[in-house]
From TrEMBL:
<dbReference type="Pfam" id="PF00012">
    <property type="entry name" value="HSP70"/>
</dbReference>
<protein>
    <recommendedName>
        <fullName>Actin-like ATPase domain-containing protein</fullName>
    </recommendedName>
</protein>
<dbReference type="InterPro" id="IPR043129">
    <property type="entry name" value="ATPase_NBD"/>
</dbReference>
<dbReference type="InterPro" id="IPR013126">
    <property type="entry name" value="Hsp_70_fam"/>
</dbReference>
<dbReference type="GO" id="GO:0140662">
    <property type="term" value="F:ATP-dependent protein folding chaperone"/>
</dbReference>
<feature type="region of interest" description="Disordered">
    <location>
        <begin position="1"/>
        <end position="113"/>
    </location>
</feature>
<feature type="compositionally biased region" description="Low complexity">
    <location>
        <begin position="34"/>
        <end position="49"/>
    </location>
</feature>
<feature type="compositionally biased region" description="Low complexity">
    <location>
        <begin position="71"/>
        <end position="86"/>
    </location>
</feature>
<dbReference type="GO" id="GO:0005524">
    <property type="term" value="F:ATP binding"/>
</dbReference>
<keyword id="KW-0547">Nucleotide-binding</keyword>
<feature type="compositionally biased region" description="Polar residues">
    <location>
        <begin position="87"/>
        <end position="98"/>
    </location>
</feature>
<keyword id="KW-0067">ATP-binding</keyword>
Length: 696
């Protein structure tokens, strides 16, 4: 194929060209030029860690090309000087600067806020599998984080609860505490935002989730993508009540809102996007006179950690280098995460080792209680109808014994009041319609959540010792089950008194979400813990066309015609399609030093509208070289709106067609979900981009 004419003695071929048959394969290597001629970058599959990755040689890397130079007031402006502008991708062997590899920029600094006294209400929504809660604070009074209460309920006592059951009765059109205790509402629907294959094996089989799925079958409106509407329906109730409750204490209409919804740390991107979409449909972003409401996601364990560490920031154990385990024991899962204090002033923490989680939450105690009372207690429930039994469970277990049980000496036995019909055939003499339950029985009922939690903590402790040579300083217990006195005392004995249970353990996640929001304000940030780096839970990457000869130098396995896809790009160069991972699972992602991905490609104007960057994820460790079943298309980043066409370097083909060199840098940060920004051609600043997530 004939090359393109370029000004200034440019080479005859366009530098990077896509395979027109595959729109996903957009960013490829030019003909062979990246193989032995790109010594300045470390192959992405090298054993080096992300932190030790070398950066691009300023003389050759695109980051330093004049087109990509940053303005002097840009946070990254102190990058090395620009390269010779003739050294552009494809212009010579040396000029090949397209790199799929992670590059590290100069530390990113927070731009100073325009108004140091930003005034807004920060709202944190903890949307849990079994219970949800909302906390809030004003940006000008950040230490005063309050909880939404007064939940609609027929029972005055419940109105004072900080959390509300995540349940909806579609027939009766009731939610939360308004669902009558005799009815059988839909629960656990949060987990239906996940595709079935992404739900962990043990959770997938759980009767609670199966029941939710079955109930929804009779409501076709909520099947498939309709689940977003069901979640939105619940969130709308939660949101409307929260605004009303907050409105009793502060003039909500006079302040802008910033909202964070919590999301499980292990959720893939499409599920996060669905949750965000549900929050939008719930009206959270509804236009308000005081300005646009900002909506973000925050990971649940991170929120829990922010809250507990914030409360303890003055305690002597908060020392640089110390690690802490935060154990969020919920209704469904127990999630565990650990942080290391990086600096105390400002209070910066970093994720210490990869977190873990297991389906061993409070529901296991619920099931065990139900099994025991029906089959082993001696009570007979055959004549007790389903509604009465459900009401009995709520009154005598959920709100009472389950939460009060501590396993301490002074609690040798409990008395419950079963339905009188269940007591009829009882041989045992009982007092005034009560029935005793021994401490040992209750211990047995709690055994599964307790054992599961203990194993998770022990595993995490081991990883911390391996990584840092010493055990964690403290174990911080949060979540609903984390408020259990029994769990606390058991862990206290097992882990030598190093366990802490914050005073409001159950609302720690919602409060932490508020802290995450408040961190966006400069004058508040100094007093708040900030997570500065996280451990990647997935690998993130793109597809690239490599010249077969260059594979080895990029740490790729040799080409194999039986396994690889070979194809030709328009200039006749043969390429092998491979995955290129710019952030790998378990590597550290530091928002102050974000991961960047550079690209370069010659394009014609009419091709622009089809051009997008496709990001893939994989949970495999290490991630694969070829696109296998573990590789999921995560999102597509459209770039047309950002292209400063006229300013891009230009060349003309012999047939007179005009090409422009589309080159730029894609940057990824993490704020509860990956955040992308792009810099293309001469555009001086990174711009956030519109991302279309798969599955939404
Ligand atoms: N004091 C207590 N003792 C024991 N269990 C409690 C106590 N307080 C609340 N719970 C239980 O905690 C569970 C709810 O916890 P939480 O709200 O943290 O879970 P969730 O966020 O809904 O679940 P997940 O984190 O799995 O999504 C319920 O089963 C509730 O009965
Ligand atoms: Mg939770």
């Amino acid at each position: 194929m004939e090359g393109l004419n370029r000004p200034l003695g440019a080479p005859p071929v366009p530098s990077v060209v896509s395979n027109p048959s595959d729109p996903e394969d957009l960013w490829q290597f030019p003909d062979g030029t990246q193989s032995s001629n790109s010594p300045q970058v470390q192959p992405s599959n090298s054993p080096q860690s992300a932190d030790s990755l070398p950066s691009v040689d300023p003389a050759q890397g695109p980051l330093e090309s004049p087109d990509l130079a940053l303005p002097s007031d840009h946070p990254c402006a102190d990058s090395p000087p620009s390269a010779d502008s003739s050294q552009l991708p494809g212009t010579s062997q040396k000029q090949d600067v397209t790199s799929p590899l992670p590059l590290r920029r100069k530390p990113w600094r927070k731009a100073p806020a325009k108004d140091n006294k930003e005034r807004y209400i920060a709202i944190g929504i903890d949307f849990g599998t079994t219970y949800s809660g909302v906390s809030w604070a004003c940006s000008f009074d950040p230490e005063n984080i309050q909880q939404v209460k007064g939940w609609p309920s027929a029972n005055m006592r419940l109105q004072d609860e900080v959390q509300i059951p995540t349940q909806i009765n579609l027939k009766a059109n009731t939610w939360g505490y308004l669902v009558s205790k005799q009815s059988n509402p839909i629960r656990w629907f949060k987990l239906l935002l996940l595709d079935e294959q992404d739900v962990k094996q043990d959770v997938r089989k759980s009767s609670y989730l199966t029941e939710a799925r079955n109930t929804l079958r009779s409501h076709p409106r909520y099947s498939g993508d309709g689940i977003i509407d069901l979640v939105a329906q619940f969130l709308k109730e939660l949101w409307d009540h929260s605004l009303q409750d907050i409105g009793k204490r502060v003039d909500v209409d006079k302040l802008p809102l910033r909202v964070a919804v919590t999301v499980p740390a292990i959720w893939p991107s499409y599920a996060r996007a669905r949750l965000k979409e549900a929050a939008r449909r719930a009206g959270i972003e509804r236009p308000r006179l005081m300005g646009k409401t900002k909506l973000t996601l925050v990971e649940e364990p991170e929120a829990a950690a922010l809250c507990t560490l914030h409360e303890r920031r003055e305690y002597p154990e908060i020392e640089v280098g110390e690690t802490f385990i935060v154990c969020d024991c919920g209704g469904g899962t127990v999630d565990i995460i650990s942080y290391r204090v990086k600096s105390t002033d400002p209070f910066q923490i970093e994720e210490a080792v990869r977190g873990d989680g297991k389906l061993c939450g409070a529901f296991l105690a619920d099931s065990a209680f139900e099994r025991w009372i029906k089959a082993k207690s001696g009570l007979k429930f055959d004549n007790v109808d389903e509604e009465e039994f459900r009401a009995f469970l709520q009154d005598e277990w959920e709100y009472t014994m389950k939460r009060a049980f501590s396993g301490k000496e002074n609690q040798s036995s409990f008395a419950i009041r079963p339905p009188s019909k269940a007591m009829k055939k009882l041989k045992l003499k009982t007092k005034g319609g009560t029935f005793p339950i021994s401490k040992d029985t209750l211990k047995e009922i709690y055994s599964k959540p307790w054992n599961g939690t203990r194993e998770l903590i022990s595993g995490q402790e081991k990883r911390i010792v391996e990584a840092y040579g010493k055990p964690p300083k403290k174990i911080l217990l949060v979540g609903g089950l984390g408020a259990s006195p029994y769990l606390y005392w058991q862990l206290h004995a097992q882990f030598h008194g190093n366990v802490l249970q914050p005073s409001q353990a159950w609302s720690a996640v919602a409060k932490g979400a508020v802290i995450a929001v408040l961190e966006s304000t400069d004058d508040v940030i100094a007093s708040m813990p900030v997570v500065v780096s996280r451990v990647a839970r997935f690998s993130y990457g793109v597809q690239f066309g490599y010249s077969p000869n260059s594979l080895a130098s990029f740490g790729q396995v040799p080409g194999d015609r039986g396994k690889d896809e070979y194809y030709f790009d328009p200039d006749g160069t043969e390429l092998v399609r491979r995955m290129t991972w710019y952030l790998k699972k378990d590597e550290t992602l530091d928002n102050r030093d974000p991961v960047t991905h550079t690209f370069s490609r010659w394009v014609r104007l009419h091709e622009l509208s089809d051009i997008k960057i496709t990001i893939f994820t994989s949970h495999e460790n290490p991630p694969p070289f070829r696109r296998n079943n573990s590789v999921k298309l995560m999102c597509e980043i459209g770039i047309i709106a950002l292209v400063p066409w006229e300013t891009l370097e230009r060349c003309t083909s012999p047939s007179g067609e005009e090409y422009r060199n589309l080159h730029g840098v894609l940057t990824m940060r993490f704020e509860g979900e990956p955040k992308w920004s792009l810099q293309i051609g001469q555009s001086k600043v990174e711009r956030d981009v519109k991302v279309r997530y798969e599955g939404v």
